[in-house]
Amino acid sequence: MARLLTGPRAAVWSSLTAIVMTLLTAGVLLLVMGRNPAVAFYSFLQGCGFAPKANYGGGSGMLSDLFDFLTYLAPMLLASLAFIVAFKAGLFNIGIAGQMLAAGFLATVLAGYNKTLPSPAAKLIVVVIGIAAGGLVGAFVGYLKYRFNIHEVVSTIMINYIISYLTGFFINNNYVDMMTRTSRVCSPAARLCLTNVQIGGVNCKIPFGMLIALAAAFAVHFLFSRTTVGFELKAVGRNAHCAQYFGVRVGRRLVLAMALSGMLAGLAGVNYYLGYTNTIIPKTLAAMGYDSISVALLGSASPIGAIFAAVIVSIFQQGANYMSSMVGVAKEIASLITGILLLYASCGTYMKIRAERVLQRAADRTRDAGQGGSGQREEA
Amino acid sequence: MEKVFTDGLSFAMPLLIMAVGAIYSEKSGVTNLAVEGFQGFGAFIGALIAVLIMPFFPKGSQTVIYIAMAAAAVGAGLYACLHALLCIRFQANQVISGVVINILAVALTTFFTSAANKAITGTSSNKLILDVSARFTVPGLQAIPWIGGFFRKMYPFEIIIMVLVLFFWYLMNKTRYGMMLRACGENPQAVDAAGGDVEKTRWIAVMISGALSGIGGICFAYSLLANFSPSIYLGYGYLAIAAMIFGNWKIGPTALVCLIFGLAKSGGYQLCIAMQLPSSYSDLFLMLPYILTLLLMVFFSAKNHPPKAAGEPWDKGRR
Amino acid sequence: MGEYVVEMRHITKRFPGIVANDDVSVSIRRGEVYALLGENGAGKSTLMSMLFGMYEPDGGEILIDGQKVVFHSSTDAAARRIGMVHQHFKLVGNYTVAENIVLGIEPMKKKFGFLPWVDMQEANQKIRELSAKYGLEVNPTDRIEDLPVSVCQRVEILKMLYRQAEIMIFDEPTAVLTPQEIDFLLQIIDGLRKDGKTIILITHKMEEIKRIADRCAILRRGRLIDVRNVADTSVQEMADMMVGRPVNLSQEKPEARFGETVLTVSGLTVSDEHHFDVVRNVSFSIRSGEIFAIAGVAGNGQTEIADAIAGMVKIASGSVKLLNTDITAASVRERALAGISYIPEDRQGTGVILDFSLRDNLALREYFREPFSKNGILNDEKFNSYAEDLIARYDIRSGQGAATQVRSMSGGNQQKAIIGREVEEHSKLIIFVQPTRGLDIGAIENIRREILAERERGAAILLISLELEEIMALADTVGVIYRGELLKTAPCTELTSQDVGLYMMGVKQA
Question: How far is CA A25 from CA A20, A35, A74, A368, in A?
Fold first, then answer.
């Protein structure tokens, strides 16, 4: 165990540990509530199209559930990439929900309600607006940090609420659907998916977002492993003082990191609001903005790890409705499971430190036994 | 005009007690972004206890409120142990821990609110309905022009919070524990060398932080909303943190900042009413505290002196 | 009561990966000054930290007044009247002297007849009396962060006295003091001995032991080598036992061959965040082949001068010229490319990124240009080959070669990596700040040789050190800084250590 947690695949093992621990905890909770954990977990999978349900409504099937799942997964992955980019540069972008909303709202208003735009143009405009809106909010946060030393956690939260109230005000005044009390549904032309595609007799929607999200994951991976800019961003995150010392313009890199993070969050926003929900509930921030933090930490802040972590978290979130209907547990348990997952994932460093100490002690013992215990050290 | 002061104070006081809690944690050397989580979790426990015991008291009994406050303090204090465990024992990144605590609090309280409602009332509401706190007016003081509004229609909790703040000022500045606590946030090595227990001091500080935030949370639940629901998470915990930052981690100036936040919020709201704008415009005025915070940060952030050791885990064995 | 007040028998202490003390036994008599001599890393501080209760030994036992004791914390040790002045003072910066001294045992009074209240007046009064009694010249109401290191040290002594310590441990007390301050300190220690206190002195300086100590234990690599009466032992004997081989710290310094002026600093003023001038109107120049050393007590503005030349802090006024180019407004990167290398004071905080691999850390000066990267894309092979090359030539030792995380490397090897990286740039100007602090003698010898080799090559060298001995051994020209001002600049041969010491305290005027 200790060896796995310190080895070259340490991150993977500590994430798997977190997942197992979470399943155990959630399982115990379900048992206490008098439910069968195995049935509950299976129904999460059924709800996401990974396993067949007992029966399906007209025109839907396992495949349509799977595509719905992907429609949800795409913004989740993008949002977690947004967190990762900032995190690598030492910043905590917990304003992803707000950046998503800003991007989603602007795209909905500017392109989603425009009936005249041809579909490809509308989709392109939506993507551009998403990137621009999120990027601007992110860059603003980075600027506040660098110029005025404002902690990004506080500023992003403040901006979250400002965006939430501001968009809520406009939706309630101008764009509200009187029946649902949410914003009017955006046009199919602007959505980042193909709706009503018939595959094997079932009605599916095919998300473009998944392609964007996967491409983004590999782009982020490339950025941090192979480019000078990524090298500098990581240096700023690990030791900003040293980065300044070897000639990085730290302030500019902070702004860049937050701008990139915001762009990804914006992309997540347009995929979420123009693809998954297709409407905006006023004054409500998407829980996905916070779930993405769980995904990022569960994936050990690695863009490739995030792909797998996003699948795990999305299964719980997206499968919760079906699970709730099958097992009769409130669907909010999905958020609880995500929260517990986050808690265990955040203990990863501690587990690693503990494992290292265990190994070191074992090594010391064997060495002492071998040669009567001599050693040397440098002054701390 | 009078309502501006009345409402302003009733918003400022819970904010202040939360900020004082944050000051305790940070002065002991544990960065505390978890105020929001403590607040919400405390309010949940307080509201849950209130709902459970309400049938045994006459309708509108104020005793329930005090019991709920005590429960909120205890509940949030215990929940804060999680932050202490992660930050002090596990030496996790304290900013991450704070964010984790907050997200987990939302998830826990949301789930268990509906679970509790189902168990108690059989409904699937996501709210725990509370009574309304009684109010009182201080005779004499209320007649003072302008600021008399502070003393009209006061909530009893405002007095409780004032007393608590005075007590916690005293504890921090005039007692041995307080001397230890502030030293822990500046130079834990000094505390260790002087025979103090850094970990214990910090644990207590974080638990105090939790308890005070919990009290703030239940006060919000009883004054602003008259219920507990996940909508209690409105970023007020972060406003308290901002107040602490502007107050330069000192209780007196922080109280002033909280009052400014309170007046800005109630003033904006009253302005909205005075201008006879439609109710949907109130959303714009609800943004005021957040915008004010950002603006204040722009002007005052550079001059701050956070506790030197805040955010750094203390490892006795490290050389 | 037996002959010995402290006995430590067969003490063994392990830290992950090392054995800090290996079966060490020492016995200390009441009222003597007992010195522990050894290099950095010999295990002296660890041994005394156990006597002071900060660590518990893995093996062996400790006796105080002939009684076996087990200390779980420094409180336990303090209860047995043991006090310690650490090398890094354990003081709270924003507290007053008195608040620091009474921390944890504050005198209390009852406010309003019932409320426990810390009584600072009484504390101040007591400390004033104590300070006067031992001639320590400390004002109890001063704030620690406003005080120079020598006063902070006396605050630590007061702390022990206030806590009625009878056994006093001093860990490298003279490391950062001027010669005159050392005289004052030794005088205080002598006074304490006359008062009946037992003094344990941890040091690596033979001269001090000769002047003040009665007996001396020599440690090397965690093991006790010998215990000697100081009066019967020569300095050379002590040195040889300490190092385990004959040493010669006074390096052969070739004749100086100065060339053109490389660095010209004129009227340099640097302000800190409170708009206080930490460097005031400083002017000097360094020629090719010259080592210009800045001597001064810590915190007098010397690191700010180095940072200002490297471009890391804003200059309030003045100018910096490299050869004939004015670089006052240039960025850090531009200056590095123009020919400045910098070995910073804070090795781990500034010089390296602990979480990066050795390979990446060695490339910090090169990664952004060909052949290390092209069009912003990194070239891994070049990173690796460059790292292998430097590791071999600068003898940088690490567990897994280039891939080793720098955090897991020893301080000496981290410093070798930094020096290798900076020297490899073949810069016209190299700034060394505290290059040998905390390293053992072998590493110190190596680094000093490296500095002299760069001087031979024709680099201009700015050396900033708190160790006067190092400055006198290496410098061609010495500038003495006091409160941000260069009080005196002169060829090293024209100054004695005593002269420099006086300037360092601001006593002599130029």
Answer: 9, 14, 27, 41
Q: Are C393 and C420 in contact (CB under 8 A)?
A: yes
How many CA atoms lie less than 13 Å away from A85 in the CB half-sphere?
33
Placement of tokens 């638990």 in the chain: B207
B179 touching C, CB under 8 A? yes
Domain housing B197:
13-132+152-248
Answer for the pair C488, C283: CB distance below 8 angstroms, yes or no: no
Helix (H) or strand (E) holding C131: helix C120-133
- Give the start-to-end residue ranges of the domains of chain C: 4-243, 258-339+425-510, 353-424
pLDDT of residue A205: 86
Right CATH number for C258-339+425-510 from 3.40.50.300, 3.90.1150.10, 3.40.50.880, 1.10.510.10? 3.40.50.300
- DSSP string for residues in C58-98: SEEEEEETTEEE--SSHHHHHHTTEEEE-SS----TTSBHH
Nearest CA in chain C to A363: C17
Only one residue has tokens 């409504």, namely: A57
Type of residue at A288: M
Among B45, B42, B44, B36, residue whose Cα is nearest residue B15: B36
Q: Tell which of C11, C19, C375 to mutate to test the A interface (max A CBs under 10 Å).
A: C19
Whether the bond into C435 is cis, omega within 30 of 0: no
Is residue A360 scored above 80 in pLDDT?
A: no
Question: How much is the mean pLDDT over chain C?
Answer: 91
What confidence tens digit (pLDDT) does each residue in A229-282 have?
999 999 999 999 999 999 999 999 999 999 999 999 999 999 999 999 999 999
Backbone conformation region of residue A291, classed left if phi is above 0, alpha if psi is from -120 to 50, else beta: alpha
C-beta separation of C303 from C464 below 8 A: yes
Q: Which of B237, B231, B242 is nearest to B292 (CA)?
A: B242
Domain shared by A176 and A150, yes or no: yes
Strand C33-37 versus strand C198-203 pairing type:
parallel
Residue whose entry in the numeric block shows the structure tokens 């490899």: C424
Please report all neighbours of B, defined by 3+ CB atom pairs within 8 A: A, C
Task: Using a CB–CB cutoff of 8 Å, tell me whether C17 touches chain A.
Answer: yes
Largest CA distance in chain C: 78
d(CA C77, CA B64): 51
Residue A173 lies in a domain: yes
Report how far residue A226's alpha carbon sits from residue A230's, in angstroms, rounded to the nearest whole number: 7
Closest to A376 (Cβ–Cβ): which among C221, C333, C355?
C221
Do A88 and A203 fall within a single domain? yes
Q: Are residues A280 and A208 in the same domain?
A: yes
Closest Cβ–Cβ partner in B245, B286, B290 for A158: B290
Residue B107 lies in a domain: yes
The CATH number assigned to the domain with range C4-243 reads 3.40.50.300
Q: Which residue has the tokens 């050393």?
A: C293
Tell me: pLDDT of C178 over 50.
yes
Q: Which chain C residue shows the shortest CA-CA distance from B318?
A: C15
Test A235 with C350 for CB contact under 8 angstroms.
no
DSSP character at residue B232: G
Question: How confident is the model over C371-395, as a mean pLDDT?
Answer: 95
Segment B60-85 shows an average pLDDT of: 93
Give the list of residues 6+ apart from residue A341 with CB closer than 8 angstroms, or none.
Answer: A18, A19, A22, A294, A298, A312, A313
Asked if C36 contacts C47 with a C-beta cutoff of 8 angstroms, the reply is yes
How many other β-carbons are positioned within 10 Å of the β-carbon of residue A370?
Answer: 8
Q: Are strands A202-207 and A193-199 parallel, antiparallel or unpaired?
A: antiparallel
Residue C172: how many other CB atoms lie within 10 Å:
19
Q: How far is A361 from chain C (nearest CA, A)?
A: 6
| Claim to verify: residue A15 and residue A161 sit in the same structural domain | no
**CA C332 – CA C317 distance, rounded (Å):** 18
